[in-house]
Amino acid sequence: MKKIIKESVEETQKRLQALTEKINRYMKQPWSIYQKPFQIADHLYYVGNSYVASYLIDTGDGLVLIDCGFCETLYQLIHSIHLLGYSPTDIRYLFLSHGHFDHCGAAGPLQKLSEAEVYIGREDVFFFEKRRDLIHFEDHTPEFPIHGCYDYERPWRIGSTVFRFAHTPGHTPGCTSFLIETTHHGNPVVCAMHGGLGINGLTYRELDEAGLPRSLHQAFYEQLQMCRTWKVDIPCPSHNHDYDILSLAARVDESRDCFVNPDGWSAMIERKIQQYLPLL
Ligand SMILES: [Zn+2]
Questions:
Q1: Is the separation of the CB atoms in 234 and 179 below 8 Å?
Q2: Is the Cα torsion angle 28, 29, 33, 36 positive or negative in sign?
Q3: In the chain, at which end, N or C, are there fewer CB atoms within 10 A of the end residue's CB?
Q4: How many CA atoms lie within 13 A of 254 on its CB side?
């Protein structure tokens, strides 16, 4: 991480090129990142691919989907939802963590299919209205309507599930994290997904080039401090490289309790803080 901030122009270009090549490979060969869906809690399922997560929640009053992945992996998402015995046409709300293509690339066609209401953090709306270049790979992100923005002050009960939304800026200005109050074996549990722990894009050089405020650097650190205190029973990462939920899923046949990890959330956030601390 220290390396990332101190790197030369050439090193930045090289890093971004490597990332672009990896993403292009995923989009050209989406089958290479296919992930079988799995159940995490009574009404919560993983339906993402092996690179980027999507979570399906059966609220009892319609389905909620958090993030929808690449446009190129939409067929997998639809297949996964069917495999779990649900229909994508029953998605009532699509909650997006932030405006990057790997989390919202499929939102356009999925919204047309499901007629779901799409929500995103208010401070990411300008990505779609004015700065489509900030979506990255915007050509791979068909347009979609935005029906609402999160109210960070108020929990939202949908059926049996309570959603709390937290503004966690840094990775993008409107990046949003989710606390999901649901049940596991009938007992109340809190699951949480952090919307964006990626430091890519947060170097001053990248912020300046994107025309984004340098204050996002400090904002990222401050929201990590805030999130670290959350009491979370089941951490749900937005990318598996932040918290290895896919390894846990490999043990799901033994016990569905494998996802319960009361220390996992704060440990994940703490790791990120320790990476980031020397840079401030
Ligand atoms: Zn992102």
A1: no
A2: positive
A3: C
A4: 7
- Which residue has 């089941």 as its token pair? 234
Ligand 1 centroid to residue 186 C-alpha, Å: 34
Q: Tell how far the Cα of 198 is from the centroid of ligand 1, in angstroms.
A: 7
pLDDT score, position 12: 80
Expressed in angstroms and rounded, the spacing between residue 39 Cα and the centre of ligand 1 is: 24
CA of 188 to the centre of ligand 1 (A): 30
- The pLDDT value recorded for residue 112 is 98
Q: How far is the CA of 148 from the centre of ligand 1 (A)?
A: 20
pLDDT tens digits for range 7-62: 778 888 888 899 999 999 999 999 999 999 999 999 999 999 999 999 999 999 99
How many whole angstroms separate alpha carbon 224 and alpha carbon 269? 6
Quick one: pLDDT at residue 256? 81
First-residue to last-residue Cα distance in the chain: 12
What is the Cα 63 distance to its own chain's centre? Answer: 17
Which is nearest to 49 in space by CA: 76, 23, 71, 28? 76
H helical segments located in the chain: 2-6, 9-28, 74-83, 101-104, 107-114, 125-129, 204-210, 215-228, 245-249, 264-276
Q: List the one residue out of 155, 210, 228, 164 whose CA is nearest residue 191.
A: 164
pTM for this model (two decimals):
0.95
- C-alpha 75/C-alpha 71 separation (Å) is 8
List domains and CATH numbers for the chain.
Answer: 2-279 (3.60.15.10)
Cα–ligand 1 centroid distance for 98 (angstroms): 7
